[in-house]
Q: What sequence folds into this?
């Protein structure tokens, strides 16, 4: 009986011990979990990951401290920004009353399309700065035009479209007509037979007859009948042969 009672008591004792150990283990696990939760909850994230995760502190009125600092920095830079923008030229503003004028492309006339003003042959060439002998003056001088020999009375035609800008009886070059072709280009026809075929301001077309070959130029009166033809660009004399068809003149 005693042995059986002792065994029964030991059985209850072992069961109680197991229950106590299980309770202690459960209690320990719960305490450890609480410890871990408290540990993570107490970490200083400012020191661990910087200030980027910090939630901005909000002041009264709903403005955060960070927003206030940014606003202060902008206010400090505002004078510099104003100074820069004041120095920049204002952008043009178009209004309903603004008139937009498109650019016009100006092209010079193609001078190589000039028409030979009279049929004939070259009797005295353009010399530029070089000296040539003048039979009439009996001296060496420059010759700023092209003398085209032709029968007296031969028709003289406008080399290009233009406007008659000068009609005169020059004391040296005789009866003279000048035509303005625009863009600073002028052609001049001298030693003519008449000035009655055109008037100043008249529009002429390329090939229009404006006069005839004469013998009115005193500086070249000893020469055969011819047309003294000049080409000028902005007042400077140019060699007319450059702009005349090569096959149109004989030498």
A:
């Amino acid at each position: 009986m005693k042995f059986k009672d002792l065994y029964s008591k030991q059985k209850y004792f072992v069961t109680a011990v197991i229950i106590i150990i299980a309770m202690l283990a459960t209690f320990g696990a719960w305490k450890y979990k609480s410890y871990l939760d408290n540990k993570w909850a107490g970490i200083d994230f400012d020191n661990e990951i910087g200030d980027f995760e910090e939630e901005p502190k909000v002041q009264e009125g709903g403005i955060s401290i960070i927003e206030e600092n940014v606003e202060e920095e902008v206010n400090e830079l505002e004078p510099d920004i104003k100074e820069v923008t004041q120095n920049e030229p204002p952008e043009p503003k178009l209004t309903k009353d603004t008139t937009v004028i498109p650019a016009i492309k100006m092209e010079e006339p193609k001078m190589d399309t000039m028409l030979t003003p009279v049929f004939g042959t070259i009797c005295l060439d353009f010399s530029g700065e070089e000296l040539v002998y003048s039979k009439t003056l009996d001296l060496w001088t420059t010759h700023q035009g092209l003398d085209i020999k032709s029968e007296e009375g031969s028709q003289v035609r406008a080399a290009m479209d233009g406007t008659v800008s000068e009609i005169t009886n020059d004391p040296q070059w005789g009866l003279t007509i000048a035509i303005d072709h625009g863009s600073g280009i002028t052609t001049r026809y001298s030693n003519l037979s008449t000035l009655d075929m055109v008037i100043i301001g008249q529009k002429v077309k390329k090939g229009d007859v404006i006069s005839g070959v004469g013998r009115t130029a005193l500086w070249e009166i000893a020469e055969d009948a011819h047309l003294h033809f000049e080409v000028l660009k902005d007042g400077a004399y140019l060699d007319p042969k450059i702009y005349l068809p090569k096959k149109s003149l004989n030498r």
Confidence is low (pLDDT under 50) at residues 45-56, 60-66. Helices lie at 2-41, 45-49, 65-87. DSSP finds three helices and twelve strands in the chain. The first helix runs from residue 2 to 41.
